[in-house]
Structure to design on (399 residues):
């Protein structure tokens, strides 16, 4: 993944501490742009305008 | 480590508070609450135990479970310094328009399946415009009819006409938080006033909806301002008070504030229960990161309701974990209304 889903920086530039516990992914791992995130009581669905749905391996 | 035996003075304070709330059935004065707020960390479990007795005596054993949904996320013109949905801050949260009815219904059905009785539709707006009002008037009765859930709405500052319209379509409870004490509010929000919030709270009750009026602890307010807030909550007479703890959000002015310490959080849950004995006191945002392993202790410190599952833009622990906690505590899930 070239971009961090927590902060949108290139993964080499992020030490991985940007994403806090219980934060859903916010940035597309493919292009680094902000994703829309639908958060319901039992689901969270991040989606990039260009790259579609992102399945969070952490959840 | 909690190691110290209660002092004679502390035992006396707790006994007098218990006599007032359990035997005389009177509210504590703010001065009495101030005294209780000064108990040491070692004495917090005793404070929590009293708060639990008060909750049982005034509200019963039931716990109300609610699901919430951010139906319109981000892009808010207000500058609430804790909020990742303000358009004024460079937050990772991307704005999204009002969800369609099917998405809202699906979230309500998820909520129903968890055993909840309440579903709150939340919008990041200063107040509802004409289009939002039309959508709410269509969706709120639809959700109630399809799921049987009580429908709550949180859509910011209301006009008299808007409050009347929401009540007319069966909105059961309207959420409008005071967040913090009047004296501290200008440190938190500059785009509207505490008085504007209080005015909407008054409108909600006047039009027959239950008022859900929450607080957010950990923004830098003093203990005295928390006591002040309890007094101000008494004046707006909420049916429900959600207790949020600041979960500092990246990009907001409060991003670098520290979390409330777990034992402090338990102390203030107990004090809010002792100060507001009849309200539905709900666990809300920030509890997982603040309380960590002490979440079940909060349930025996005065809490009698919780938001289950995820929050608006952050995730919660799994619903199964909360439902297991209630089962282990032998706390039945039920529907609550303010007992006056």
């Amino acid at each position: 993944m070239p971009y961090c889903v927590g902060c949108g920086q290139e993964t080499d530039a992020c030490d991985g501490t940007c994403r806090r516990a219980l934060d859903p992914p916010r940035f597309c791992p493919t292009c680094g742009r902000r994703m829309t995130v639908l958060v319901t009581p039992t689901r969270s669905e991040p989606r990039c305008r260009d790259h579609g749905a992102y399945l969070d391996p952490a959840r | 480590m909690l190691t110290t035996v209660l002092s004679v003075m502390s035992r006396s304070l707790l006994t007098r508070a218990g006599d007032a709330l359990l035997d005389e059935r009177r509210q504590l004065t703010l001065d009495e609450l101030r005294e209780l707020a000064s108990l040491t960390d070692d004495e917090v479990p005793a404070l929590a135990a009293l708060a639990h007795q008060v909750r049982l005596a005034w509200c019963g054993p039931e716990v109300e479970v609610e699901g919430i949904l951010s139906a319109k996320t981000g892009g808010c013109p207000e500058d609430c310094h804790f909020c990742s949905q303000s358009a004024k801050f460079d937050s990772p949260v991307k704005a999204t328009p009002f969800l369609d009815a099917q998405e809202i219904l699906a979230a309500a059905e998820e909520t129903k399946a968890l055993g909840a009785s309440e579903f709150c539709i939340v919008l990041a707006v200063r107040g509802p415009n004409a289009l939002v009002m039309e959508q709410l008037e269509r969706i709120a009765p639809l959700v109630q009819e399809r799921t049987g859930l009580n429908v709550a709405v949180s859509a910011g500052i209301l006009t008299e006409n808007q409050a009347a319209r929401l009540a007319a379509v069966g909105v059961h409870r309207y959420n409008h938080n005071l967040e913090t004490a009047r004296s501290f509010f200008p440190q938190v929000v500059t785009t509207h006033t505490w008085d504007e919030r209080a005015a909407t709270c008054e409108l909600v009750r006047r039009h027959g909806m239950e008022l859900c009026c929450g607080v957010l602890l950990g923004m830098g307010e003093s203990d005295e301002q928390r006591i002040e807030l309890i007094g101000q909550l008494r004046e707006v007479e909420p049916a429900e008070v959600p207790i949020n703890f600041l979960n500092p959000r990246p990009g907001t002015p409060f991003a670098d504030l520290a979390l409330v310490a777990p034992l402090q959080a338990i102390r203030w849950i107990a004090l809010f229960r002792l100060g507001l004995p009849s309200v539905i006191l709900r666990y809300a945002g920030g509890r997982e990161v603040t309380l960590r392993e002490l979440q079940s202790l909060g349930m025996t410190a005065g809490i009698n309701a919780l938001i289950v599952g995820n929050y608006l833009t952050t995730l919660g622990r799994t619903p199964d974990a909360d439902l297991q906690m209630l089962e282990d505590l032998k706390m039945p899930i039920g529907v609550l209304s303010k007992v006056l």
Observations:
- Chain B has a mean pLDDT of 96.
- The two ends of chain B are 39 Å apart (CA to CA).
- Chain B has twelve helices and nine strands.
